[in-house]
Amino acid sequence: LARPGLSARAIEDVPVLVATIHREYSEAGADLVTANTFRLHERNVAGWTDPSGAERLVHRSIEIARSAVAD
Questions:
Q1: Does the pLDDT value for residue 22 go beyond 80?
Q2: Is 71 within 8 Å of 40 (Cβ atoms)?
Q3: N-to-C CA span, the chain
């Protein structure tokens, strides 16, 4: 991954894509959905945005996952 935080950036840059991935896994029969929180710690986030935003990104990631699979 050439850009820092690439997987984490998807939460802000392409949330519709992240939600689509969650939804497709659910539709395929997944019993468990995890949020896209990989590398969302302050040290990593500091490589591309304000590190104080790490917690906000975690909450946003959970929100995307939950809304994507809500009945």
A1: yes
A2: no
A3: 34
